[in-house]
Design brief:
Shape of chain B: globular
Strand content of chain A: under 5%
Mean pLDDT of chain B: 87
Strand content of chain B: 15-25%
CATH superfamily of chain B: P-loop containing nucleotide triphosphate hydrolases
Radius of gyration of chain B: 21 Å
Shape of chain A: elongated
Low-confidence stretches of chain B: none
Distance between the termini of chain A: 12 Å
CATH class of chain A: Mainly Alpha
Number of domains of chain B: 1
Largest interface: B-C, 38 and 42 residues
CATH class of chain B: Alpha Beta
Number of helices of chain B: 11
CATH topology of chain A: MetI-like fold
Order of helices and strands of chain A: HHHHHHHHHH
Helix content of chain A: over 70%
Distance between the termini of chain B: 31 Å
Chains: A mainly alpha (284), B alpha/beta (338), C alpha/beta (321)
Oligomer: heterotrimer
Largest sheet of chain A: none
């Protein structure tokens, strides 16, 4: 049995056994698909305004209705997926590398590395996270890259702590001692013994923080930081639609909000399913 | 003849954050100098030798310092004092950090207590056995595969199981992987840390016989750590009995178990369950062992639990001294014999 | 055996549903234990010895199902009893101690308080008297300076002391039956001897029946009045200890004795048991689950086994030694 075939078979089992995980995976595939091809398949240009069609409720032509400038909300929600998902993915990848490596090194070596990583994490945790993210974007400049960096930084303590705890437990594990007896130095032990075992736990963490990262990005845009109109982005769209809620045009804020909710829901559910797949001990 | 391993006056102490109230600790931190910090005396002035081809048993209860001693010998830990002469070289001079790359690394190997826990769950059996061969014998390609296959065969592990992960193997098969990994680099001294503790009796027998066969085939010496005296009796030539960091009795395994000289050994032997039900003597140790933190160097470590306990026992630490032919005991009252 | 046993188990069968099929974990398990008697259930891993205990306590894994059988304790069938009846019986009539005492204790509550809790809930002890009674119990299980130790938390105690606390908790309500699942595995032999002494002494005082589950035949041989040997979910032999050790009738019992290190004078004399446990998910399991490993197999072994009648010396074998 090759490792890959085994993983695929196991993944199929996990999904089949747990319908909720299956649903989360299906949603995930849908989100990735929409993020990849969204801009090419939407029926109407998301930036094209048409004042005649402004503030129309959902219909066959405009599935999610139109906004105050007559732009098609369905197209805008679909196209926004790439931006929101992209910000989340890149910020999570960034924090996965930074926080994961820092935490594993802190847990494995202890001493001054541990103290520095710990203090940095404590300092970040001392701020209300969203306010910290606001501050970082405001200070670095109002760009998508800076949203990615800000989101990664506020998630840093979470990754560093999880990775530190897991590495610290495994530092004393029998297989680490066995590796020393086999002639492995610290660096090799870290790379080949500790990291592969901390990895699945961080992957679960990734899935959980993906949801938070999307919310964070949308939140920053909602208050006017980061992505600027008229770029389609869920947070901005909710912000723009909020004003029309009182006058009964609920769909402008509702559909981007729904997309946001579904994405966060999907990533949170995905975590548990992923852990079952990545962990070989759960395979039979 | 020089022994293969000659351990002399080996000690390992760990600093501790002393127990007791936080306030007391704080005060101690301010009033005491750093070098006066409380210490756990895990291994205290231990000396012994292992000859080439000899199997020496090391017994004692949990917390007696067996694991620390073993980790100092296998150079996973740096001892606080003393020497570890292997052949003619003092290995205690090489820091544990650097020993992974040392030329003598392959000559001392170890089989761990829980084979399941000592194999990386993400390594196949092949990877686990191949790791030391790659690192220490610098083999690769076909030579590597052949060496791993040979080690597996010697341990009775079918080569078709080599592609499996530890959780896909039975307890006995995992134990064989652990042994194959240790012998693949042809060590001269193999430390066996309770290698059969997690196994069923039927599997235990097979593994013990395998170990006995490998020893003669490969000409290794064994240090066999176990709490199971019945097993030690069957496998070992000589036995060391440890209590709270000190060796309290040493001698030929059979003689020590049949006629224990030290009161602790006597209690230990009496506590071993016997199939025939006899020997249920009411020789029980009362109370708990004394604290290993800063023990009084002039009080016998067994004082307080010892049924004998006289005045001399708390004014003078009994040294390990010759008792009968080939036997040593650390007790004021056991010089002549039982 | 006494005329009215404290617990009589008849025909107990348990199945587990797993991904890869139904595991027939226990089949027609029967035994009885009398008042004041100590019964050891001995077997290797996978023999079903722990499953038996869990089934009796009603704490089987959700995948497990009792498909048949009765277990009568003081007139109540534990298998068909309702959840509320069982909850009432557990702790008061039957108590259980586990292999790993530290995990079974509440880590953030002093041990004395944990004993007092059980006394108030199951032992009808008034709140004001409970702490003092808890200290008495700690003294009874041989803990020195019990008043001080009662205030200690589990992490401040050694494994042996934690197991003594577990025994004190188990015995707080003076149960009729104690089930001890590998109570001394992982403890030192010296501590094991003391713990087993305490259990025996307290059982003797109160006439409590004890079932203790172990993989160590030597320990069973030394401590039990009767021994039940299990293999692959079957009771293969059930006899008085002395008779079983001296004259084992089932080939597996004999092999098990010969494989116990204590029995042999040298390593060569130690016998190994050929073969391994059959896969309990198989549809074509032979009536005797040992027959495929058995050196004494005869034609009749393919016929259904003799049913475990509660004989003085029961052997599930057509060709016993």
């Amino acid at each position: 049995m090759t490792a890959l075939a085994g993983t695929v078979r196991h993944a199929r089992y996990v999904i089949g056994e747990n319908p909720v995980t299956g649903l989360a995976f299906a949603l995930f595939v849908l989100i990735v698909f929409v993020a990849l091809v969204g801009p090419y398949i939407v029926p109407i240009d998301p930036l094209a305004s048409d004042t005649v069609e402004a503030l129309k409720s959902p219909s066959l032509r405009h599935w999610f209705g139109t906004d105050q400038l007559g732009r098609d909300i369905f197209s805008r929600v679909v196209v926004a997926t790439r931006l929101d998902f992209g910000i989340a993915v890149w910020s999570v990848v960034l924090v996965f590398v930074m926080g994961g490596l820092a935490g594993v090194a802190a847990g494995f070596f202890g001493g001054w590395i541990d103290r520095i990583v710990g203090r940095v994490a404590d300092t970040i945790m001392a701020f209300p996270l969203f306010v910290l993210a606001m501050g970082i974007v405001a200070a670095l400049g109002n760009t998508v890259t800076n949203i990615v960096i800000a989101t990664a930084i506020v998630n840093f303590p979470l990754y560093a702590r999880v990775a530190r705890a897991e590495a610290n437990v495994r530092r004393e594990a029998g297989f680490v001692e066995a590796a020393r007896l086999s002639g492995n130095g610290d660096v090799r032990i870290l790379a080949f013994q500790i990291l592969p075992n901390v990895f699945p736990i961080l992957v679960v963490q990734m899935s959980l923080t993906m949801g938070y990262a999307i919310l964070n990005a949308a939140g920053l845009s909602f208050i006017g930081l980061g992505v600027r109109p008229p770029t389609p982005e869920w947070g901005i769209m909710v912000a723009e639609g909020a004003a029309f809620m009182v006058s009964g045009e609920w769909w402008i804020a509702f559909f981007p909000g729904l997309a946001l909710m579904v994405a966060v829901f999907c990533f949170n559910l995905l975590g548990d399913g992923l852990r079952d797949i990545v962990d070989p001990r759960r395979r039979t | 003849m020089t022994p293969l391993l000659d351990v002399a006056e080996l000690s390992k102490r760990f600093p501790v954050a002393a127990s007791g109230s936080t306030l007391k600790n704080l005060r101690r931190r301010f009033t005491r100098a750093a070098d006066e910090q409380s210490q756990v005396h895990a291994v205290d002035d231990v000396s012994f030798t292992i000859a080439k081809g000899e199997t020496v048993g090391l017994v004692g209860e949990s917390g007696c310092g067996k694991s620390t001693l073993v980790r100092a010998l296998t150079r996973l830990l740096d001892p606080t004092a003393g020497s570890i002469r292997f052949s003619t070289r003092d290995l205690s001079l090489v820091p544990a950090r650097d020993f992974a790359k040392d030329r003598d690394r392959g000559r001392i190997q170890m089989v761990f207590q829980d084979a399941g826990e000592s194999i990386n769950p993400r390594f196949t059996a092949f990877d686990a056995i191949a790791d030391p061969v790659r690192r220490l014998k610098h083999l690769s390609g076909l030579a590597l595969v052949e060496t791993v296959d040979k080690a597996a065969r010697q341990c009775g592990l079918p080569t078709e199981l080599l592609g499996r992960y530890p959780h896909q193997l039975s307890g006995g098969q995992r134990a064989r992987v652990g042994i194959a990994r240790a012998i693949a680099v042809e060590p001269e001294l193999l430390v066996l840390d309770e290698p059969t503790a997690a196994l069923d009796v039927s599997v235990q027998v097979v593994i013990l016989k395998l170990l006995a066969r490998l020893k003669t085939e490969l000409g290794m010496s064994y240090l066999f750590v176990s709490h199971d005296l019945s097993v030690v009796r069957l496998l070992c030539d000589r036995v060391l009995v440890m209590y709270l960091g000190k060796i309290v009795e040493a001698g030929p395994a059979r003689a020590v178990f049949d006629y224990p000289l030290h009161p602790y050994t006597r209690a230990l032997v009496a506590a071993v369950p016997r199939l025939d039900g006899i020997g249920l003597a009411k020789l029980r140790l009362s109370g708990e062992p004394m604290s290993p933190i800063d023990p009084d160097p002039n009080v016998c470590r067994f004082y307080g639990r010892c049924p004998r306990g006289a005045d001399i026992c708390r004014t003078q630490m009994p040294p390990l001294r010759r008792a009968a032919e080939g036997r040593e005991v650390a007790c004021h009252f056991a010089a002549g014999g039982a | 055996m006494t005329a009215v046993p404290a617990l009589a188990v008849e025909d107990l069968s348990v199945e587990f549903r797993t991904r890869s099929g139904v595991v027939k974990a226990l089949e027609h398990v029967s035994f009885a234990v009398g008042k004041g008697e100590t019964l050891a259930i001995v077997g290797e891993s996978g023999s079903g010895k722990s499953v038996t205990a869990y089934a009796l306590m009603g704490i089987l894994d959700p995948a497990g199902r009792i498909t048949a059988g009765r277990a009568v304790l003081g007139g109540l069938d534990l298998i068909s009893a309702s959840a509320s009846q069982l909850a009432d019986v557990r702790g008061r009539e039957i108590a259980m101690i586990f292999q790993n005492p530290r995990t079974a204790l509440n880590p953030i509550r002093p041990v004395g308080r944990q004993i007092a809790d059980v006394l108030m809930r199951h032992g009808n002890v008034p709140r004001v008297e409970a702490p003092a009674r808890a200290v008495d119990l700690l003294r009874a299980v041989g803990i020195t300076d019990p008043a001080r130790r009662a205030k200690a938390y589990p992490f401040e105690m050694s494994g042996g002391m934690c197991q003594r606390v577990m025994i004190a908790i188990a015995l707080a309500a003076r149960p009729a039956l104690l089930i001890a699942d590998e109570p001394t595995t992982g403890l030192d032999v010296t501590t094991q001897a003391v713990i087993m002494d305490i259990i025996a002494e307290l059982a003797g005082e109160s006439g409590m029946a004890t079932i203790f589950i172990t993989h160590d035949l030597a320990l069973a041989g030394q401590r039990a009045d009767r021994v039940v040997v299990m293999h692959a979910g079957h009771v293969v032999e059930n006899a008085a200890t002395r008779a079983l050790i001296a004259r084992p009738s089932h080939p597996y019992t004999a092999e098990l004795i010969a494989a116990t290190p204590d029995s042999a004078a040298s390593l060569d004399a130690l016998a190994s048991i050929p073969g391994s446990l059959p896969d309990l998910r198989r549809a074509d399991l032979p009536p005797c689950r040992y027959s495929e490993r058995c050196p004494r197999k005869v034609e009749r072994c393919d016929a259904p086994l003799p049913r475990p009648a509660l004989a003085e010396h029961f052997v599930a074998c057509w060709n016993p030694l």
